[in-house]
Design goal:
The chain is an alpha/beta fold and 219 residues long. The chain has six helices and eight strands; from the N terminus they run βααββββαβαβαβα. The chain is globular. Zinc ion binds next to loops.
Length: 219
């Protein structure tokens, strides 16, 4: 099963950056570079159909409360202008604009909204405006990582009212705790996302089996 792209679809390619996708990256996601060929095929299909394609990139300053060096949860990654912040070299680039998030030290994961590091207030990116400007009526999400930026970007798209599909073959999870990725897919499915995969039945089974785990960890 493949998503149907048309001129009112937006494909959002989340954070396929060296620090996440390259095995040498500082926050390397297992199998992250393995999605690039699939994602490129999706970009090509989207462009063929006249869909809008947008990328997101983590784009952090050298020091931010997002990093463990300043009390945050993550190793230093995707510092603006560095190799780690660059899109993976094998990824089809320039199919559309790239939304760079976190440049002013904001924390968070969604391509639509970060949080001010001091006040915690939401800081919107330009992504929602880009979708509006392109007449978007449906959103398709792929990229890295399932359990953080993909999840939060897709949840925000749903919250904005867009029917949203997640390309299960085009995402990979950090899995800080085993099962986080499957739990994120379960959360997305219950929020109304359509999980698209070449073998959809298998994905549905995985998501079903992940739901008790997800609710346990939430409790
Ligand atoms: Zn980050």
């Amino acid at each position: 099963m493949q998503p149907d792209y048309d001129a009112t679809t937006a494909l959002i390619v989340v954070d396929v950056q060296n620090d996440f996708a390259d095995p040498a990256g500082s926050l390397s996601v297992a199998g992250g570079d393995g999605i690039v060929g699939y994602v490129n095929a999706q970009i090509a299909a989207a462009l063929d159909a006249g869909a809008f394609v947008a990328y997101t990139q983590d784009w952090h300053p050298p020091s931010t409360p997002h990093f463990v060096t300043a009390g945050g949860p993550w190793p230093v990654h995707c510092v603006a202008g560095t190799w780690g912040a660059a899109l993976h070299p094998a990824l089809t680039q320039d199919a559309g604009p790239s939304v760079r998030k976190g440049a002013n030290g904001e924390d968070g994961y969604s391509g639509f909204t970060m949080r001010d590091a001091g006040t915690g207030d939401p800081v919107p990116t330009e992504l929602a405006g880009l979708l509006q400007a392109h007449g978007t009526r449906r959103v398709v999400v792929c990229g890295l990582a399932t359990d953080y930026c993909v999840r939060d970007t897709a949840l925000d798209a749903i919250g904005l009212g867009y029917p949203t599909s997640v390309l299960v073959d085009g995402v990979r999870a950090v899995d800080v705790r085993p099962g986080d990725g499957a739990g994120a897919l379960a959360q997305l499915a219950s929020a109304g996302a359509v999980l698209v995969s070449a073998s959809n039945a298998r994905v549905v089974d995985q998501v079903r089996s992940a739901i008790p785990t997800a609710s346990e960890t939430v409790a």
